[in-house]
Every structure is written in C-alpha cells, then in structure tokens.
Please model this.
Amino acid sequence: MDAYFAHSMIEKEDFEKMEQYILDHVPAEDFAAVRKNLKPTSIILEEATDKAYHEGAVLEHGCPVEIRKSLEPLEKRLPDVVGIGFAKCGTGTLQFLDCHPSVTMRSTEPKFYNSKNAFDIIQFDGEGTPEKYDYLKKIEITAGKDKQKFLKFSKTVLTVNPKKQYAGSAALDVAKAMKILNPKTKIIGIACDPIKRVYSQFAMKNRRTEFKTSDGMDEEAIHKCRACLNKDLNETIKDFTENAQRLLDNGGNSPGFDEYARALEPFVEQFGDENVLLLDGENLITQPNQEWARLLEFLGLNKESMKFYIDEEKGFPCLEKPVKYCLNGAKGTSRKIDVRQEYPEDTAIWRKSFSPKIKEMILFKKICNKIDEKCCQKLRDEKSSFSWAHEYACLDV
Ligand SMILES: Nc1ncnc2c1ncn2[C@@H]1O[C@H](COP(=O)(O)OS(=O)(=O)O)[C@@H](OP(=O)(O)O)[C@H]1O
Model:
C-alpha cells in the first residue's frame, strides 16, 4: 500500500482518516469489496496544461480515492454512459460519479469517437460486419496519442465518458456509431443558463490568455491560440453583443450557447428519449441533491447513495457521501460574478437572442408540453429544474 502514496494526492495519514468514513458511508452489500479495493487514486500526469484538474495534476480516475464494489477481472470496454456536454455547464461535476462504488470514470475526457472513425464505423456496419473488437482496435488506432482511451474496467461497474465535443458538428455520425458499438449507451447532457455560460466561457479563455502571457507567450502566438481570448474581456463581450443584435435584426439566428435541443436530437433519435437525460447545470449548483437524485435514478442507482453539501467558502457543492471531496478551485470562479448586474445592457440583448432556442429545449425535452401560463408558473418555482429558463421562455407569456 505504501507505494501508492508516492503517486497520489493523498498523504498516508489523511487516507487512514478517510478510510473508516468511506466504509461507514458505502452500502452494506458493497462493504467487503470496497474495503479490499480502497486505495488512493494514482497520478498519471504531474503537470496538466489545464489547471482544472486536481491541483494541476491528472489522476487516473475522477475521485481522489478508489471506491469500487467490483472484484471482477478488468477488460477493455466502451463506455456505458456518455456525457455529451455542454461546455461550462458543469460537465466537470460528473467527476463526482467516480466516487460511487458502482461507477468508474476517467479524470480526463478521452475521445472515443471523432467524425472520421464514426463515419468508418457506420460504413462498416452491415458490410461483412467485422467483430466488435476490430472496431475497437480501429478506433484505438485512429484515435491517436491518447493513451488513456482503452483503460480496463470491470464488467460490473458503469463506465462513464464525458466528452463535450460529441454534441458538436459530427453529432449525427457519433450518435449512430455509438449505437452500433453499444446500443445500450445512456446519454447525459447538462444544460445551463446561456447568459452565465457565455460569461463562463469568455472568462475561462481570458484566464488562459493571462496565464500564457505571464508565461512568456507573445501576442502572435496568443492570437493563434484557439482556447485563448485575443481581445480584452469587455471588448469580447461587446463584440458578442453586437453580433447577437445583428442576428436579431436579420431574423433571429442564434449566436450560439443555447442550441441544446439541436445537439440532443441525434442522440434522442438513436437511443430514445428515455435514454437521454438532460440535467440542469444551475440546479446542480443550487440544489445538488435534487439534481443528483435525477442522475442516480437515470443510471439505475440508489438515489440516496450520494449526498452533497454546499461548501460556504467555495460557494459550490462538494460531495459528502460516500467521501468528502470538492472539485479543484479552478472550477467555480465566473459564476461568482453576477453577469446581469455587471453587463445589464448586453445581457438584455442576449436574453432576447437566446429565447427561441431555450423554448425549443423546453419542448424538446418535454420540460413542458406547451409554453403557456402553466409552464411559466412551473418554471417560476426556483426549486424546479430549469427554473432559469423562465426568463427566456416567458418573456411574452
Ligand atoms: N460543485 C461544483 N464545483 C465547482 N464548479 C461547479 C460545481 N457545480 C457546477 N459548477 C460550475 O461548473 C462550471 C464549469 O463547467 P464545466 O465543468 O462544464 O466546464 S468545462 O467546459 O469542462 O471547462 C463552473 O463554471 P465557472 O464558475 O466559470 O468556473 C462552475 O460554475
């Protein structure tokens, strides 16, 4: 056991303190297996480029300790559950799932499917259909350098793979390929208030620019960096507003950040509405236990098996059961700013631009059957999932 501590985030004495707490908080039937498997999670990369991981390091799994109920042998497996997005809405919080004894999840977001291999899988299907393992090998080869893709997992735990790009432009092929390889895949999307999402995205890119500039990157390189802001944050916001206004004036196309229904559609088509869960990213922050109960139920797990509390200092939920654990400090910065108060005129324009697509989302995921007074009354209740959508959907109801 001592060797594990050399490559983990946890000191031996802290782990010893955690051990009994964890064993007291896992289901009685999982106790023996969890005790046998319990150890600190290994660090696989000491310095990640994205600071959103554990103190800058990348762990082998999402949870800092390995809490597993399975004693079965491990094998290469495709994910049972796929998180398809949406960026800045709280996909990172799915990391908490890895602390559940029946679930396992990588701490990074390996990409099993891209437009090329998804297309190839669809082409192969039905034409002398190679064995599934050949498909997997094919993906492994085309997928390139990401060594973490085909980690071995036990058969008896759910494996989760969040990957926000799956909901992008190749979504139709990706959804079809997923269906061919694993027809039982369950899909999770996390939608959130697009006004907060826009700000969160720009603020993240701005942080990256500041970091890279202080690290010596010159202006030209910053300009080429797609993940950076190459203008001042306020100017970027002004540009976004101007574009949103132009689109409104020209008939109302979306400036982006709100196209939840369109992104979910291919997955609903392939797997059925009942296998595609849309979580509320805002409720994940304000009412974590309510939103997590929806998720656990969807995965067929006991709703009481994970509990959260809101950490006052962080202002965000942290896991309380089966282990105490908060996400890294890099997550949860921009949502501390009230964007509407900071940018009242810009956000008023954004609100109008986002309104049609948010209505579409409400109808598509059957949050309401119609956008009417009854629906608006339901959304007005701050405790209901998607209450943030009231502001967009009920502008003129
Ligand atoms: N429990 C908890 N702890 C910390 N942060 C939380 C939590 N729940 C939701 N959030 C919000 O998640 C936002 C980041 O979303 P993502 O993880 O999807 O971001 S990313 O796209 O992977 O970069 C992140 O956005 P920022 O505030 O801009 O950092 C948070 O507001």
Summary: The mean pLDDT is 87. The chain has two domains: 68-193+259-328, 194-258+335-360.
